[in-house]
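Run log // design_07
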């Protein structure tokens, strides 16, 4: 039965992972937790994430009373529950009795019990046990007024120890892989063509001959490897869907699972379509180097990616309030960073600030991980005070923030299937490093203070004034038509070398670059410039260093804006522009330094009107960025009241320098927290975040 999904309460959620199951013999601690949560302005706790062995201590015997008492007590004290399904960690009775629930490695060995995400997503026993516990939780708590959402499992495929991609190579998974292939290709002939199996005598004459790629067998057939990645992500997603169906039986609460940003094994764009809400777990190595700006840019990208998956507010599901215990060096967050890094999530579209964890565990591998409540000193700690003061701030800003979201005019294409394909392409550099080469484009926008959406090749492009598509090696689905249509209707499209090489099946395009007409160029070769060459390009009278990649292309209808200055291709086009229909298409043939991206994307943002709407004189100081949230029709926290849609923009101006930075505001703004009117020069203190509206 299709249910209308209940919306989240209209509040900015503040709280985090809470594991009372570790403290059931300490009622004093549980009572103290509630008192401290209220003191810290906590209004939400994620419960039961790893509690399967307490919820079902013996096969088929459920003990949910302790959980019920805690949910009740939290609710009575104004604290909501995001209730987890506990599948991320299996109880030992299960993995001992049913060996098949454990994953099989690609060498054919079953994993030992323990750790997290050590389950086979195909296993009928695993699915049956999951349905059992999920239904029991749903039946008992699915309509509890305190329960506001389902936290489906935890970081699927993550936290799996040495083997972290969610893949299982057992005979059943291999069988499901063959079924998946049959659905995709219909016939073996189609598959043989798509995988180009004439190569190295790989032609398959029976589906049974197909095995998952493995270091012990076939590991070079690109089509096979790509499809195995697609299958692995899909198979786990299928498991997630079944988890959602199980909790949906008695409950209309939204389903969310926690994503990990650019997490290679799972295609989050596809996953997001199944979930009611998306969320992000943000762990960064703050202060690992003197300059926090690269970390800030990376964190911002994680938030932005998560928001972009549904283009609506997301939830920051986990973050540390102080340190991350699995980093090589577990530095403490410097005063101010806890608030700034949390508000950064809100600036990028989060409607929550949630921590891992509320209270430090007493034993095992996370006993020293950052938490709101330490082993000692209760609420009398620096970290607790920081959290409490942020909680108070969130409460104050909530009415202005709720019902708004970032609505950028620029987008960058990031595509998981492209990522899988390009890393395995055995070309250019091995591996290619798509995420690493892609990131500078995002960073340039960040430094310019321009919000962007991150889209994949299935997303519509209309509505954006500027679309940047770095290293789209694979063009899949209708992407070619989408881009043609977008540019023809007036869009500005920017792409780079190592784009448009292969189709969905990883087969090379023949004859011509599929967007050759749009770009007005003919592509030929690609060089990895040796480190000793120091090639450069010149654009608008300025020289820029080339990093590594240099495509050799010929301008047809395109105008040449910049050329290579050295090597045997000196004088070849390195930057081109072509008019196509109503729009423009740019081709960046070389992989250029950050200075180029800053200047070039800044120029295009200006030209296309996709820059920041916050008016400042001059450039933003280094380390300062701006995000803008504008009123929306609906949000993670529900439909927006019509009065709210009359609100204006909110600008989050964040200084990631430990020292001060001076801004020069070209218009009048009001600080929504202090009421201060700001115009002209204003000094931001180290790690400060201002939230402004138009005055
Ligand atoms: C996350 C995980 C949490 C906790 C945290 C520690 O990846 O979801 O359960 O382990 O890391 O940083």
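design_07 sequence
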């Amino acid at each position: 039965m299709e249910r209308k999904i209940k919306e989240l309460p209209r509040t900015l959620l503040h709280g985090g992972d809470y594991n009372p199951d570790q403290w059931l013999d300490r009622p004093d601690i549980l009572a103290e937790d509630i008192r401290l949560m209220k003191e810290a302005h906590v209004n939400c706790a994620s419960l039961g994430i790893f509690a399967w062995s307490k919820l079902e201590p013996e096969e088929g015997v459920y003990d949910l009373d302790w959980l019920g008492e805690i949910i009740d007590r939290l609710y009575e004290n104004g604290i909501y529950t995001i209730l987890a399904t506990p599948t991320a960690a299996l109880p030992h009775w299960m993995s001992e009795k049913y060996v098949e629930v454990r994953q099989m490695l690609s060498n054919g060995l079953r994993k030992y019990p323990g750790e997290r995400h050590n389950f086979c997503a195909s296993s009928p026993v695993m699915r049956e046990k999951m349905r059992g516990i999920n239904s029991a939780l749903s039946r008992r708590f699915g309509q509890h007024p305190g329960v506001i959402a389902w936290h489906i499992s935890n970081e699927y495929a993550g936290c799996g120890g040495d083997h972290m991609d969610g893949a299982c190579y057992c005979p059943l998974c291999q069988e499901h892989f063959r079924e998946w292939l049959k659905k995709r290709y219909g016939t073996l002939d189609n598959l043989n063509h798509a995988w180009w199996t004439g190569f190295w005598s790989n032609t398959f004459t029976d589906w049974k001959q197909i095995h998952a790629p493995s270091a012990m067998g076939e590991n070079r057939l690109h089509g096979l490897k790509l499809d195995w990645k697609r299958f692995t992500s899909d198979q786990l997603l299928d498991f997630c869907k079944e988890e959602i169906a199980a909790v949906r039986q008695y409950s209309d609460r939204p389903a969310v699972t926690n994503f990990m940003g650019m997490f290679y094994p799972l295609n989050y764009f596809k996953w997001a379509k199944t979930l009611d809400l998306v969320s992000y777990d943000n762990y960064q190595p703050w202060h690992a180097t003197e300059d926090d700006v690269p970390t800030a840019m990376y964190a911002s990208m994680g938030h932005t990616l998560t928001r972009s998956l549904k283009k609506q507010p997301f939830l920051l599901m986990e973050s540390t309030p102080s340190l991350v215990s699995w980093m090589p060096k577990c530095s403490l967050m410097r005063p101010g960073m806890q608030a700034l890094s949390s508000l950064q999530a809100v600036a990028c579209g989060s409607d929550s600030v949630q921590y891992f964890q509320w209270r430090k565990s007493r034993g095992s591998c996370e006993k020293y991980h950052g938490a709101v409540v330490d082993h000692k000193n209760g609420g009398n700690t620096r970290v607790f005070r920081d959290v409490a003061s942020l909680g108070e701030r969130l409460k104050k800003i909530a009415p202005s923030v709720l019902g708004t979201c970032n609505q950028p005019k620029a987008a960058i294409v990031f595509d998981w299937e492209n990522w899988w394909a390009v890393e395995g392409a055995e070309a250019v550099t091995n591996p290619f490093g798509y995420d690493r080469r892609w990131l500078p484009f995002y960073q340039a926008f960040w430094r310019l203070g321009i919000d962007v959406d991150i889209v994949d090749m299935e997303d519509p492009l209309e509505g954006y004034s500027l679309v940047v598509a770095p290293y789209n090696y694979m063009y899949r689905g209708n992407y070619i038509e989408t881009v043609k249509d977008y540019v023809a209707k007036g869009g500005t499209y920017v792409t780079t070398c190592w784009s448009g090489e292969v189709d969905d099946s990883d087969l090379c395009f023949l004859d011509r670059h599929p967007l050759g007409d749009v770009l007005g160029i003919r592509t030929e070769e690609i060089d990895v410039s040796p480190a000793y060459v120091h090639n450069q390009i010149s654009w608008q009278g300025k020289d820029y260093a080339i990093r590594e990649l240099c495509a050799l292309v010929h301008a047809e209808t395109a105008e040449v804006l910049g050329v290579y200055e050295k090597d045997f291709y000196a004088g070849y086009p390195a930057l081109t522009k072509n008019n196509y229909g109503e729009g423009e298409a740019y081709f960046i043939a070389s992989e250029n330094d950050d200075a180029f991206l800053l200047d070039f994307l800044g120029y295009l943002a200006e030209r296309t009107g996709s820059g920041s709407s916050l008016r400042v004189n001059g450039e933003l100081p280094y380390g300062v960025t701006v995000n803008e949230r504008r009123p929306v029709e609906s949000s993670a926290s529900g439909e927006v009241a019509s009065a709210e849609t009359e609100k204006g923009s909110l600008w989050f101006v964040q200084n990631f320098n430990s020292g001060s930075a001076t801004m020069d505001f070209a218009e009048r703004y009001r600080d929504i927290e202090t009421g201060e009117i700001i115009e002209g020069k204003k000094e931001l203190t180290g790690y400060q975040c201002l939230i402004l509206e138009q005055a």
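The first helix runs from residue 27 to 39.
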